[in-house]
Amino acid sequence: MSAAQLTFREADLLAEHDYAAPHTIAGQRLHGGFDADGRYLPPRSKVRAKAIDNWTAAVRERGGDLLPADSSLLTGPRVPNEAQQRLLMEAGVTRPFWNLLTITGKIEGRGRMIAEMPFPDLQALVVEDISGTALGHLRRGLLKAHGLDEGGEPDKGIGGHDVMWFVARDLAFGPDAHPDVAPPESVSRPEAGQRHMPEIDMPFELALSFLMNLLLIEFRAEIGFAASQAVFRTPTLFPGRRAEAEQAAVIVERIRTDEEIHVRSLRLYLGELRALTVRTLRGGTMPGAALVDRFWRGVLRWATVEQPRLAAERQYQALREQILARAGGESLLREFNAQADPGYSLAA
User: Fold this and answer.
1) Edge-to-edge strands of the sheet including 28-34?
2) Over 50: is that where the pLDDT of 1 sits?
3) Is the pTM of this model over 0.85?
């Protein structure tokens, strides 16, 4: 049996399937397409998906594996949670869900910067040859593919995840249902002036921190996307636009299918690094696992303990104002509070 291919050109990792039909909804060309059986095929996955499979098999043959992590790691209150979102929608408070979809699309659009961001050559950090690893292809198509998935190719009129969210929103609500809204300031981990990986050069620390935080963003998105999809599929919501809401849920399902490649890739990058040897600033070496695991523990604490409560408190206060501004708002707020995630008491 011939050895599996482990090196690829950028053009390979960006290659599209020969779609039997394009992905077009409401006159908007979206990325990806369909095979002859009508099955959705994610963008740039013709070779990329197989390459990830090959690199995954290779790291396992060397005794490593993907970073052991999934979205179940992320705990903490969500405001509004799925039940609260349904309650608001049934009470006619539709602006929060519309805002959520709009903000999600805008944040996804920001992800296009991943396609063009400067990223250091990790071969200078790693002792072993990484030319046949996913890490060795970050600057050879993998980061570019990720960014294009998020922000699309507007110069070609092809929408990515950003436009897919806007299309889903407008299907369910109709166009211009509410005024535009900008994403809030992010609740970021306070890291200014701190070194978490002092053994290596700062550009490498920033690069690895970016990959780990991006993985957590993908996990958080996975939870939120599933909740949004469930709201779209609630039979009692979107009266008069049920078929459109169901189609919106299908669009979200396609986004989630695309994101599976992102999660697998990020877990692979970090898993590969854990199985390799890292050069230190003092001329020595250290196991990649020691570097990755220590920083990952710190990132997880922020993402599972500190950040969720800060974000929930901020969102709760904004929603509280909207609810109380309505007739009967105090009663609705009491019901909203009763639907809160168990174990959390947010400021009233």
Assistant:
1) 21-25, 28-34, 40-41
2) no
3) yes
